[in-house]
Amino acid sequence: MLKIITATAKELLLLLRDRTGLLVLFLMPAILVVIITLVQENVMELTGQKKTQVLLLDLDQGDLGRSLQTQLKTGNLELVVWDEKQKDMAAIQAAVAGGDYQVGIVIPKDASSRFKDAASRLFQQGKGTENPPDSMTTPLHLFIDPGIMAGLRSGVTAQLQMALTVMSQEAKITILSKTLQEAMTSLHVPPEAAPLDSSRLPALFGQPLLTLTENPNSTQTTITSYKPVQQNVPAWALFGMFFTAIPIAGSILQERNSGIWVRLMALPVSPLVLFAGKAVAYMGVCLCQFLLITLIGAFLFPLLGLPAFTIAMNLPAVLLTVLFSSLAACGYGIFLGLICNSYEQASTVGATSVVAAAAIGGVMVPVYAMPHIMQRLSIISPLNWGLTAFQDLLLRGYSLSAILNDLGRLLLFFAVCALFSWKLAKRQQ
Q1: Nearest Cα to 256, choosing from 105, 429, 127, 139?
Q2: Given Cys at both, which of 126, 311, 393, 414 links 331, Cβ 3.0 to 4.6 Å?
Q3: In this predicted structure, what is the pLDDT of residue 170?
Q4: What are the angstrom distances between the C-alpha of 286 and each of 89, 131, 143, 204, 267?
Q5: How far does CA 106 lie from the centroid of its chain?
Q6: Is residue 278 assigned to a domain?
Q7: Which secondary-structure segment (H or E) carries 80?
Q8: 53 near 102, Cβ under 8 Å?
Q9: Are 270 and 176 in a shared domain?
């Protein structure tokens, strides 16, 4: 144990002298987690997972505009009332076309009265007429920025069309209720003899018969909506951890090229003791990396308008995942330092392999968004094992027992790397 402590102290002294390497290890994941999270938060807004602002110009100032705002409150559209002095259609069209707003809608003058009149005439002209004339419709003018994505355009149009459909159905039901009431009155049907109280038709038609219940009978405490913060903080912390493989490999190659490695091998210690010293030292670096990214997510993100990163539960399991992930990263760095012959070779192979493992492991793009063949390849990435464990704990609310398989893979990966490193060290000795 004393030998491992001595080897660890040596590695820490060498690491503290490499201030440039330390800056890269901590600064790179910190910058990446902020930039990627901000980008993904904006993508969520564009794909409809967050409320999209819609500019509203209500030239009618009647019941139609108030009803439209009421309908859209339950969706992912947030109406922003146009309050500029120039209240005309050309102004709002220019604001949307210029990219200041993505969507704009204009309610023309007298739209409410035309809408009510059309609903009244619908049943009168509907006697024997299957298709009412188009002149009965009340157009609302929609402007969409041509630069927005097709998915957002379709989503906004569908939500607006759904709101208009609901408003139309409510108006028809109200007129139908009034018509039935007048018909029963003209036929001298007493209210108590009527089969249905026509005044209750709007409430009856508005009563839902089917509902959706999300995650019924679930006993887990889960986060019900996707949050990029909960995904990106552990993902890019993992990315930074595995990048420690490069300075680990560099320190071994420096010792090999300077002859220090030969002297260390001549000491009455096993190569495994030297490996353990490096692993313990750099595991401390990985823990500091994770702590830094966690603090950024918890305190800096709210200042940038992002949700705060939280670890609401399973803190011991999260720390255990960090330890096993950092152990796997250290094992890979030791193997890289013994199989490569120069620092340039180790840095090239290390950076390329870590970036590739991060790409297929779901750090940059979620695994479910990849092609099927890439989804099957993701299982070979150690970063995927660590990220899956973090997601099970932080997003799905699972317990430690659910991530034992992923932790076992990380431990096995370290063991295999240590075994091959030990054989390479023996051969070089």
Answers
A1: 429
A2: 414
A3: 79
A4: 57, 70, 51, 61, 29
A5: 33
A6: yes
A7: strand 77-81
A8: yes
A9: no
Over residues 27-56, the pLDDT tens digits come to 766 776 676 666 555 555 555 555 677 888
The contacts of residue 341 (CB under 8 Å, 6+ apart) are 253
Q: Classify residue 397 as left (phi > 0), alpha (psi -120 to 50) or beta.
A: left
* SS3 at position 406: helix
| Whole-angstrom distance, CA of residue 314 vs CA of residue 321 | 11
Q: Locate 148 and state its tokens.
A: 């927005």
Q: How far is CA 330 from the centre of its chain?
A: 29
Q: Which residues of 215-246 are buried (b: 16+ CB within 10 A; e: fewer)?
A: eeeeeeeeeeeebbbbbbbbbbbbbbbbbbbb
Angle, CA 29 vertex, CA 17 and CA 34 arms, to 5°: 140
Residue 211, domain member (yes or no): no
Q: Which of 226, 205, 224 minimizes the C-alpha distance to 215?
A: 224
pLDDT at position 341 is 85
State which of 150, 174, 206 marks the end of a domain.
206
CB 304, CB 379: distance < 8 Å: no
Query: Which residues of the chain are under the pLDDT cut of 70?
Result: 1, 3, 7, 10-26, 28-29, 32-33, 35-51, 75-76, 84-86, 99, 122-136, 147-152, 184, 187-227, 369, 429
- The residue range of the domain holding 197 is 51-206
Query: Does residue 157 sit in the same domain as residue 18?
Result: no
Containing 156, the helix (H) or strand (E) segment is: helix 150-186
Token readout for 15 is 């690491």
| CB count in 10 Å sphere of residue 210 | 4
Residue-level pLDDT at 319:
93
Under 8 Å between Cβ of 12 and 278: no
Strand pairing class (77-81; 52-58) = parallel
pLDDT tens figures, 139-182: 888 888 776 666 667 777 888 888 888 888 877 777 777 777 77
- 424 vs 428: CA distance, rounded Å: 6
On whether both 260 and 349 belong to a single domain, the answer is yes
Query: For the chain, what's the residue count?
Result: 429
What amino acid is encoded at 115 in this protein? F
Token reading at 125: 């002209």
| CB-facing half-sphere around the CA of 274: CA atoms within 13 A | 24
CATH assignment of the domain containing 56: 3.40.1710
List the Cα angle 152/154/159 in 5-degree steps.
95
Residues 77 and 147 in one domain: yes
CA distance 206 to 173: 10
Q: Is there a single domain that holds both residue 327 and residue 363?
A: yes
| Cα gap 293→230, rounded to integer Å | 11
220 found inside a domain: no
